[in-house]
Design a protein that fits this description.
Number of helices: 5
Number of domains: 1
Number of strands: 2
Distance between the termini: 23 Å
Shape: globular
Radius of gyration: 13 Å
Largest sheet: 2 strands, antiparallel
Order of helices and strands: EEHHHHH
Low-confidence stretches: 96-102
Strand order of the largest sheet: 1-2
Mean pLDDT: 89
């Protein structure tokens, strides 16, 4: 997917490497645990930063989470939440689509 961050379009992708990075960041053992954690719908600003940062890096932009936290996002926190939700839906499926079992 593509998102505008700091006024520039960026490719974002939750690759397997990006998902592994998120597993490490959240101290989870597997993708199923990651899907369950995000399935609650409750995401902190730190969660949004980590998800968007991992997706930026997965899409080829070498940005740190600190750089992501400083980026301007259209719609502010709500815009960041929409981006993260779209990424997670693409990675794990929507409510009507169960996440693939590894």
């Amino acid at each position: 997917m593509e998102a505008v961050l700091d006024g520039r379009a960026h490719r974002l992708c939750l690759t397997l490497g990006a998902l592994a990075e998120l597993e490490d960041a959240f101290a989870l053992d597997d993708v199923s645990s990651l899907a369950q954690r995000f399935g609650s719908g409750r995401l902190s600003a730190r969660d949004l930063t980590r998800i968007i940062g991992a997706a930026l890096r997965g899409g080829g932009t070498p940005a740190t989470d600190e750089e992501v936290a400083a980026m301007a996002i259209d719609g502010g926190a709500a815009g960041a939440a929409r981006i993260a939700a779209d990424l997670l839906t693409a990675a794990f499926g929507g409510p009507e689509e169960p996440a693939a079992r590894p």
